[in-house]
Q: What sequence folds into this?
């Protein structure tokens, strides 16, 4: 059983920055690639970013390339999402996920005001 807990969301003005964290319980963290997804009100959940097991490979949605950075610290069982130059359209609940699994966090709200 794995539990994922996101933190770091909040309210910022457009152009601001936030850093999200996702802490995982269990000893299996290091064998999974990790993902961030988001869901805006009234919209379907969408992929944001992914990182390989040891962090050597990353992938981003076109909408966040150049502004968001995903990273991980396997010693701390934590994956991060650094978000810069936030836009109002980035407003959503952000979720982390163990790739290819049923394990999702509960989400953290990010709001970028114009």
A:
């Amino acid at each position: 059983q794995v539990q994922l807990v996101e933190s770091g969301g909040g309210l910022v003005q457009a152009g601001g920055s936030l850093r999200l964290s996702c802490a995982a319980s269990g000893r299996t963290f290091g064998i999974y690639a990790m993902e961030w997804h988001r869901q805006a009100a009234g919209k379907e959940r969408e992929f944001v970013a992914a990182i390989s097991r040891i962090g050597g490979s990353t992938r981003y949605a076109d909408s966040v390339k150049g502004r968001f950075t995903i990273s991980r610290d396997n010693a701390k069982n934590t994956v991060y999402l650094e978000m810069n130059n936030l836009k109002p359209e980035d407003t959503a609940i952000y979720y982390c996920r163990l790739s290819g699994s049923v394990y999702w966090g509960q989400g953290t709200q990010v709001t970028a005001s114009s």
The longest strand covers residues 18-24. The chain has a mean pLDDT of 95. The two ends are 40 Å apart (CA to CA).
